[in-house]
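Progress report, Aim 2. The chain analyzed during this reporting quarter is listed below.
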Amino acid sequence: MSEPVSRAGRTVTAGHRAPAFVADALRIAGKDLRIEFRTRSAFLAATVFAVLAVVIFRFTWDPTAIPAFDLAPGVLWVIFTFSGLLGLNRSFGLELSDRAYDGLLASQVSRESIFVGKVLANLVFVSGVQALTLPAVALFFDLHVGAAWGVLIGIVLCASLGLAAVGTLFAAIASNTRLAELLLPMMTLPFFVPLVIPAAQTSAVILRGQPLEDAMPWFKLLLAFDLVFVTACIVVFPYTIEE
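Predicted structure tokens for the chain:
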């Protein structure tokens, strides 16, 4: 029989904690996504940046010097990294402006649920930008991905999860500072490097048409960093919001 656990005046059995955790996280993610859907300012800014970057890279590229499948992975992950930063700071900034974040912390929702919900919302945001950027890069650089689309999308989603987790954690840390827009890139970019390098290397192997076995060492490294960063961010997040 599950032992009852009291949380903020509400008795919750151990067997019900996991569904409540998931439900709370999904509600928070849905709230953030509805706010973004109403304004769409961050998404439009990130999308414009991504498309503009693709166009600039394309018209400054010399096909006789660098093959497209060598340049495209770097272009993809530079765009993914910086376009994602445009939306990360917004995930906490909107709530701090009218003190809504204080109400969220005072609720019965666990700190871990808040973090996971924010990560899910940021992951959807980043994935939306990537869904537009991937075909644009393939079109402008004349990449013949073929049947490898599924593998490439899987690599992008794995790396995006780690980027969203790290970015959400540092967005929470930077949100209470006066220079949040400046501090967020400075803090996150060094931690993005261990995720972006294996993601770019794995993508390069796929785009060159090499066997999947050649990409496995890099992909395993990407999964290892994902596991470490996501777990560490969930554990650390409650301490970052304590006054």
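Residues 1-16 have pLDDT under 50 and may be disordered. Residues 14-240 form one domain. These observations will guide the mutagenesis work planned for the next reporting period.
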